[in-house]
Amino acid sequence: MLSTGALRAHLLAARLAGPVATSREESLRSYRLFAARDPRVTLGLDPEWGWGERDLLRLMADKCGVSPDPAHVSGPDVIDPERTLAGLDALAARIHDVAARRGAVLFGTGHPHRLLAFYAALADALSAAGCDVLTPAQGRCVDITTRFGVRTYNLDYVRGVALVREPGARGPASETGAHTHSPLPVRVALGAAATLRGRLPDLVVGDHGWVCGAGQLGIEAVGLADTDDPALFVGEAEGRVSVAVPLDDAVRSDYYRPLTRYVLNRACLSQ
């Protein structure tokens, strides 16, 4: 069993917490864009409260541990490992609850290169516990606006985890899956789940638009978020995201394995 102390040490060594690769400049830019309601950073969330840049900085200092000083404008951003541990504990509690009632779960990621294996291990464990891991709208086309214009992707599932790929993409999903912040894939998946199966998920687990898009539609959603992803923490503050775990979401994929073991142990599930 991985102890809390050992995981804390791993978070710092792998730069999942502590000083992270996400720069202060990136984080502050995201807060400015969110305050302007830019859909690239709201991730499908329609905030109920008026969030200015200073409000967001205070929120992120509270939720993540970033510096609350607006004069701090450069260098690496910082995540408090204690907040990451608390978030992982809260995530494990939601995983335990849905496993106990053998609920339906939808997994999705906009970071397939980094986080696919993390979510897939949780999906495997929940499936083994009797949960229904949903895979609605397999192969469906999703048109997503990017900085290069509107591009068409296909919704795909790998080991129960949804992601999008360009049509005709070949090779492992961890290499060919697209990085996206869009909430459109989760909207397509939830629409298909409601229409074809008549059953919406009891829990959505993921990141970016998968979490915010589901939470905005009233589905319980939990996931991982970096310091430049304020939308998940705003959603948590406003009550539409159940858990937002602060950590660097773009380190090497194998660095997330100890987190998988920790969450499954806390959730009383085996990997």
SSE map:
Elements: H1 4-13, E1 18-23, H2 24-35, H3 39-42, H4 53-63, E2 76-79, H5 81-100, E3 104-108, H6 112-128, E4 132-133, E5 141-146, E6 149-158, E7 161-165, H7 173-176, H8 184-197, E8 203-207, H9 208-216, E9 221-225, H10 230-238, E10 243-246, H11 257-266
Parallel strand pairs: 3-4, 3-7, 3-8, 8-9, 9-10
Antiparallel strand pairs: 1-2, 5-6, 6-7
How would you describe this protein?
There is one protein chain. Helix 9 (208-216) links the parallel strand 8 and strand 9. With 271 residues, the chain is of the alpha/beta class. The strands form two sheets. Strands 3, 4, 5, 6, 7, 8, 9 and 10 form an eight-stranded mixed sheet that branches. The chain is 44% helix and 19% strand. The chain has one domain (1-271). Helix 4 packs across helix 10 (230-238), helix 5 packs across helix 11 (257-266) and helix 8 (184-197) packs across helix 9 (208-216). It has helices at 4-13, 24-35, 39-42, 53-63, 81-100, 112-128, 173-176, 184-197, 208-216, 230-238, 257-266, and strands at residues 18-23, 76-79, 104-108, 132-133, 141-146, 149-158, 161-165, 203-207, 221-225, 243-246. InterPro entries: Phosphatase_SCO2771. This is Phosphatase.
Average pLDDT, all residues: 95
Radius of gyration: 17 Å
Distance between the termini: 12 Å
The main sheet comes to:
8 strands, mixed
Structural domains: how many: 1
Q: Helix segment count?
A: 11
Percent strand equals 15-25%
Structural class: alpha/beta
Shape: globular
Low-pLDDT stretches = none
Order of H and E elements: HEHHHEHEHEEEEHHEHEHEH
Estimated helix fraction: 40-55%
Number of strands: 10
Organism: Streptomyces noboritoensis
Protein name: Phosphatase
